[in-house]
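The instructor's notes for this session suggest beginning with a concrete chain rather than abstract definitions. Hand out the sequence below and ask the class to guess, before any prediction is shown, which regions might be ordered.
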Amino acid sequence: MDLSMRWLNDYVDIKGIEDRQFAEDVTMSGSKVERISHEADTIRGVVVGKVLSIENHPNADSLVVCSVDIGCENLTIVTGAKNLKVGDKVPVAVNKSVVAGGKEIVTSSLRGVESQGMFCSLAELGLTVNDFPYAEENGIFVIEEDCRLGQDIHDAIGLNDTIVEFEITSNRPDCLSVLGLAREVAATYDLPFAPPSPKVESEEGDINELLKVEVKNSELCRRYVARAVRDVKVGPSPRWLRERLRASGVRPINNIVDITNFVMLEYCQPMHAFDIDNVKGRRIVVRNANEGETITTLDDIERKLSPEMLVIADEEKASAVAGVMGGKDSGINENTTTVIFESANFLGSSVRKTAQKLGIRTESSGRFEKGLDSRVCQEAVNRACQLVEMLKIGKVVGGLIDVDNDVHEKKRIPLNYEWINSFLGIELTADEMKSILRKLDFTIDKDDVIPPSFRIDINHKADVAEEIARFYGYNKIPATPVKGACCGTVTRRQHLEKVADEAMLSQGLYEICTYTFISPKLLDKALVPSDSPSRNFVKILNPLGEETSVMRTTAIPSMLSTLSLNYNNRNSEAALYELAKEYVPNKSADELPNEKTALVIGMYGDDIDYYRLKGVVEAFLDSFAITDWDVEPVHNNPTFHPRRCAEFMVNGETIGILGEVHPTAAGNFGIEGRVYIARLDFDRCCLLSKWGEKTYRSMPKFPASARDLALLCDEDMPVLRLEKAIKSAVGEILEEISLFDIYRGEQIPKGKKSMAFSLKLRSADHTLNEEELSSAMKKAVDKAISMGCQLRA
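After discussion, reveal the predicted structure:
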């Protein structure tokens, strides 16, 4: 909503308030200001001048040389305009001035004669012939206004208004009017509000002798008011009216149409004017459109109507689309002598649907669709007739036609002062609250408040409290803690997700995020067997394409696709991870799939091998405080290399798999060289995690003893299995066991390997003696022998 400050001052005297302060104040009271602009912003250095002489250009037949007085000096200006004569007052753009469009005017030579400026047309001032109907559209603007030489053009022709753009919410259609905003401003500054009092001084005849109105659909047309004006003189509107329309973004047309637009902007009540000579049978019928009926609207477009649309018709055809746009045939022209002013109230949802279906949106439809107050209809039509009298452009016919089908029931809301103070956290007296509400046209009736009919947003005591808070001042309300509010906290799951991210980032990996919708073909590339449970997909009913037709059951193909993308973009190495969602369907198709989270890790590069990947997984498990895990070789997973794949297990349950991707699978994804992938059941890891469980252990008081143990084992003996077996055999005094050497050579039989361990033994309550140490080592050796190993001397 664009508000003219000149128009606003007609109802509230706010002269002396700076623009910036005005914007801050009304925004704080609930009417948000988007921006403030000035009509004088785009034009600079243009003044009023008087043509003193006109002479032919010595070197150009199409140009003339003019001497012009701008009050303080005489200038020479060369022009090709044909509509000038000596004595004319014209806009003069002097040297270094700026006209509409940002064009700068400077002194220059035209065919050998210096021109010290330029005469301006309407277009160069950002105006049209609608703003000044007496001007020539394509010639120099010859000013007929009362002005003085040298006066700034903005002040001379009234192009000096300030325009405030408001953001009006859909629940406040009353503020889509000058009066609505003026009421808010008056309440904000506690100033007198002086709205107009529509009153017709002189009336002749009776409208009922000229016109009949019938409303056939009272649900869509809740009220229809009509008044008539005779002996109409259609012509340009006075300058004050044109200025207010222009500042509000509405193009002036003629005095009758301008009056309807003026009242719409003033009252937020769209109006329409009919030429009674175009109303067949002198009868207006408000009805639904007929099947296949058409109408040519004011924009000269023929539109096809449908039965759910409401139209204003005469006895033969539709004359207007109700609440949207008038018909071309019923419009006002220079030959119009008798006018019917229509002020009606239409159902907002019907107007919106009609406008959308016809593909047009007007100032009228934009207001109706928000829901308007039907009580304004009569006041608005009376205001239009009052303006006709003020402009002396016709004689108002007596009486009015008012078909009122609305239910005018007043809303009553209990006014509980103590509750409002408690609700807002303020301390206002009952009289202070009443004073605020009365400024907004609320009525106080004992213990109830009656909002004005145009306030469709007031329905509850909280709405009343909001009105009081707005004009008491939000910035005055003390800050207090919210009572009964829950204190937000990070869940354990969220903590663990952060721990996982930090663990991966600390290992030099980059996080990725892939789509959960994939193509089944990705599993073919990953060599997933056709009978694998991973192929039991949740299928998308309306996929964007085959590439996103199913929800993934495993995120490994997504990681391989991302590694492939990096490889094919010539990235020599990549180390990526994702906390990926996977979806496993339930037995019943009516149930939603189970959503699981997996930590997927992918790597390739010169420095990447199986042990680098295993180290990353171990770092993750360590960050989750998962310690009692085993590693078992896997030989039958077709996605992985048969000799370079393993499972991580806890208490006999698999929690993840890692290894080198099968060369065929890597090749299917366009990757040459070795690729390494790990997938861990993140949900299971969260359950097993002992993160955050801190157990105090005092510093050891007694010394530790170190022993080395070299064993000859089968080639396929896992180190971890042997370590855990030895630790189990020795018991609590084995503080630490670590592998420090693996040897294969001529002295070692084929199919065997030598593994050397360092054992650190300590007792918590005494120093271990040699007998205890020997016993512990014997237990370790015996356990290793029972597993098929031999003690190596």
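Then share the key points. The first helix runs from residue 5 to 8. Residues 127 and 468 are 43 Å apart (CA to CA).
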